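Worked example 3. Consider a protein that binds zinc ion.
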Amino acid sequence: MTAGHGLAGAGCDLCEAARLTPWHAEDDRCWVADCEVCGVPMVVWKRHGAQPPDGEVAHMVAVLDQVADARFGPGRWSLDRVMRQIPGHFHAHARPHGHWSVAPGL
Ligand SMILES: [Zn+2]
Ligand SMILES: [Zn+2]
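Given these inputs, the predicted complex is written out as C-alpha coordinates:
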Protein backbone atom coordinates (compact mmCIF):
# COMPACT_ATOMS: atom_id res chain seq x y z
CA MET A 1 0.00 0.00 0.00
CA THR A 2 1.76 3.16 -1.12
CA ALA A 3 -1.10 5.54 -1.76
CA GLY A 4 -1.82 7.68 1.27
CA HIS A 5 1.71 7.58 2.56
CA GLY A 6 2.48 11.25 2.31
CA LEU A 7 5.62 13.08 3.29
CA ALA A 8 4.41 13.48 6.85
CA GLY A 9 4.70 9.78 7.49
CA ALA A 10 7.94 9.08 5.67
CA GLY A 11 10.22 7.01 7.85
CA CYS A 12 7.63 6.77 10.60
CA ASP A 13 7.64 3.34 12.25
CA LEU A 14 3.95 3.48 13.03
CA CYS A 15 3.02 4.34 9.45
CA GLU A 16 5.01 1.38 8.26
CA ALA A 17 2.91 -0.75 10.60
CA ALA A 18 5.32 -3.65 10.40
CA ARG A 19 3.74 -6.70 11.94
CA LEU A 20 6.59 -7.55 14.26
CA THR A 21 4.28 -8.54 17.09
CA PRO A 22 0.84 -10.19 17.17
CA TRP A 23 -2.04 -7.94 16.10
CA HIS A 24 -5.15 -8.09 18.23
CA ALA A 25 -7.53 -5.90 16.28
CA GLU A 26 -7.74 -3.83 13.14
CA ASP A 27 -10.37 -1.70 11.46
CA ASP A 28 -10.48 1.19 9.01
CA ARG A 29 -9.24 3.71 11.57
CA CYS A 30 -6.73 1.96 13.80
CA TRP A 31 -4.95 -1.21 14.75
CA VAL A 32 -3.98 -2.78 18.07
CA ALA A 33 -0.80 -4.79 18.55
CA ASP A 34 1.64 -5.58 21.30
CA CYS A 35 4.17 -2.77 21.59
CA GLU A 36 7.56 -3.96 20.45
CA VAL A 37 9.24 -2.08 23.27
CA CYS A 38 6.86 -2.58 26.20
CA GLY A 39 5.09 -5.83 25.33
CA VAL A 40 1.68 -4.40 26.23
CA PRO A 41 -1.26 -3.76 23.88
CA MET A 42 -1.04 -0.49 21.98
CA VAL A 43 -3.56 1.17 19.69
CA VAL A 44 -2.23 3.06 16.69
CA TRP A 45 -4.06 5.53 14.47
CA LYS A 46 -3.94 4.62 10.79
CA ARG A 47 -3.27 8.22 9.80
CA HIS A 48 -0.07 10.09 10.56
CA GLY A 49 -0.58 12.85 13.12
CA ALA A 50 -0.33 13.52 16.81
CA GLN A 51 -3.84 14.87 17.39
CA PRO A 52 -6.72 12.90 15.94
CA PRO A 53 -10.22 14.37 16.26
CA ASP A 54 -11.95 13.56 19.55
CA GLY A 55 -14.27 11.10 17.86
CA GLU A 56 -11.35 9.12 16.49
CA VAL A 57 -9.65 9.07 19.88
CA ALA A 58 -12.83 7.81 21.55
CA HIS A 59 -13.10 5.08 18.94
CA MET A 60 -9.49 3.99 19.38
CA VAL A 61 -9.74 3.96 23.16
CA ALA A 62 -12.83 1.77 22.86
CA VAL A 63 -10.98 -0.71 20.64
CA LEU A 64 -8.02 -0.80 23.02
CA ASP A 65 -10.45 -1.22 25.93
CA GLN A 66 -11.71 -4.50 24.54
CA VAL A 67 -8.24 -5.91 23.95
CA ALA A 68 -6.89 -4.79 27.33
CA ASP A 69 -9.93 -5.99 29.28
CA ALA A 70 -9.54 -9.40 27.70
CA ARG A 71 -5.82 -9.46 28.44
CA PHE A 72 -5.61 -7.94 31.92
CA GLY A 73 -9.19 -7.82 33.15
CA PRO A 74 -11.52 -4.82 33.47
CA GLY A 75 -10.18 -2.17 35.83
CA ARG A 76 -6.75 -3.77 36.05
CA TRP A 77 -4.94 -1.53 33.58
CA SER A 78 -4.57 2.13 32.74
CA LEU A 79 -4.59 4.07 29.51
CA ASP A 80 -1.25 5.70 28.78
CA ARG A 81 -1.44 8.33 26.08
CA VAL A 82 2.07 9.70 26.50
CA MET A 83 3.84 9.24 23.18
CA ARG A 84 7.44 8.73 24.21
CA GLN A 85 9.07 6.98 21.31
CA ILE A 86 7.11 8.43 18.40
CA PRO A 87 5.66 11.80 19.43
CA GLY A 88 4.40 12.67 15.94
CA HIS A 89 1.97 9.78 15.47
CA PHE A 90 -0.94 9.06 17.79
CA HIS A 91 -0.76 5.85 19.76
CA ALA A 92 -1.77 4.81 23.26
CA HIS A 93 -0.69 1.96 25.52
CA ALA A 94 -2.71 -0.16 27.93
CA ARG A 95 -0.50 -0.66 30.96
CA PRO A 96 -1.42 -3.26 33.58
CA HIS A 97 -1.45 -2.01 37.16
CA GLY A 98 1.68 -2.89 39.06
CA HIS A 99 3.83 -3.35 35.99
CA TRP A 100 5.21 -0.47 34.01
CA SER A 101 6.21 -2.92 31.32
CA VAL A 102 5.91 -6.65 30.91
CA ALA A 103 8.20 -8.85 28.90
CA PRO A 104 6.55 -10.26 25.78
CA GLY A 105 5.91 -13.97 25.87
CA LEU A 106 5.94 -14.35 29.64
ZN1 LIG B 1 3.27 7.93 11.28
ZN1 LIG C 1 5.55 0.75 24.16
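Take a moment to read the result before moving on. The beta strands are 23-26, 30-34, 41-45, 77-80, 91-96. The CA atoms of residues 44 and 91 lie 4 Å apart.
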